[in-house]
Design brief:
363 residues; mainly beta; globular
């Protein structure tokens, strides 16, 4: 996903994390997954301390993005980035939830580790798979587990302070609406809503909304890409369903405001495969490479950043900038990488290590 906390698009730093569009990382021994590149925007006033100036950014990024440098996350014997989901911390630095390692971490902007919390398991201080972590207005840290267990950590990440079990399944993302409300995004399941508003003070769900369009093509794509993510800007929730070529705007009360067609040069919709389970591996690869999926969104003032691509053996991932009225600002192919090997996006050197990021500013 694309996360942000600094509002001015001229004062942003994008740190691109190596969550690959296809396949697991080189450290996770082989289970094929569909993952998204993560872009995290932070305050440009404090540039990554370990980043060195890198030239030739125009070869990788569109003209609207300028490469600033590289950040290498600190790792230790018990802290290894395998499948990290990263969010900007309003205190500075980054919050990382690693689903594979069942761990939550906070890093400074220079990549040095502040803390790591959690381990595999189902105990009070354990996670089956940490999906996302965000800083709350009261300074505590909210962590979502793949089991729909929700916990808050004290501001320093030392201990669990509260715990809930949400009546939701397949949570993929969370974002803060205000002092008392959290927005959860879930993976598609039949015709159920994709977005849910939870009141943390009351400990209850208040709203359920955004039921995606339904047809045979969308249901086919949902087999591997039925996710929704959202980005909140100026009391408007911007969201998408991965297999549909539009963005949707909602009020923070869950009322639909409008739908805007994304001005793709080309966006191919999935066609139902002849067989899904038991299909020959090569044919399945060909099928998932025949259509596009949207993987992330960020709302930055009047600019929406949309990441989308084709997957399969030859992934092609692009970044599109558009106005909220639907006009294209830029569209740029980020990477065309054969499998194997996988090259992480926005890397200064070829690597598939998910602890190596590139920082870039939005012009």
């Amino acid at each position: 996903m694309i996360a942000h906390y600094q509002q001015s698009k001229r004062n942003q730093v994008l740190a691109a994390l190596g969550r690959y569009p296809v396949l697991s990382s080189s450290r996770s021994n082989g289970f094929r997954q569909l993952l998204a590149v993560t872009l995290v925007t932070a305050n440009c006033g404090t540039s990554p301390g370990s980043a060195s100036e890198r030239g030739g950014g125009s070869a990788t990024f569109p003209d609207h993005l300028h490469v600033v440098g590289e950040v290498i996350l600190e790792e230790r014997p018990n802290v290894i980035n395998v499948q990290p989901s990263v969010r900007a911390d309003p205190h500075g630095g980054f919050l990382v939830a690693d689903k594979r390692e069942s761990q939550v971490r906070r890093y400074h902007l220079d990549g040095s580790l502040d803390f790591a919390f959690g381990s595999p398991g189902q105990g009070p201080e354990e996670f089956v798979g940490a999906v996302v972590s965000v800083r709350l207005p009261d300074q505590s840290i909210l962590v979502v587990d793949r089991t729909s267990k929700i916990v808050t950590l004290d501001p320093s990440g030392n201990r669990v302070t509260r715990q809930w079990q949400l009546p939701l399944t397949n949570i993929v993302d969370a974002d803060v609406i205000d002092d008392s409300r959290i927005l959860f995004s879930v993976r598609a399941s039949a015709s159920r809503p994709l977005l849910h508003i939870w009141n943390i003070n009351k400990g209850e769900l208040e709203r359920h909304f955004f039921i995606p369009p339904q047809n045979s093509q969308i249901r086919a794509a949902s087999i591997i890409g039925g996710w929704a993510f959202a980005s909140i800007q100026n009391d408007t929730i911007w969201s998408f369903f991965s297999a549909v070529d539009s963005v949707y705007a909602f009020s923070t009360e869950g009322v639909r405001l409008m739908a805007v067609r994304i001005p793709f040069e080309r966006f191919d919709i999935a066609r139902p495969p002849r067989r899904v389970f038991g299909i020959r591996f090569g044919s399945f690869d060909e099928w998932i490479g025949s259509f596009h999926l949207i993987s992330s969104i960020a709302a930055l003032e009047d600019l929406l950043l949309i990441q989308y691509g084709r997957y399969g053996r030859n992934p092609q991932v692009s970044l599109l900038g558009m106005t909220t009225a639907g006009a294209r600002v830029f569209e740029h192919l980020l990477v065309v990488t054969p499998y194997p090997p996988i090259t992480a996006y926005f890397q200064a050197r070829e690597t598939s290590e998910p602890n190596r990021w590139i920082a870039a500013s939005i012009r």
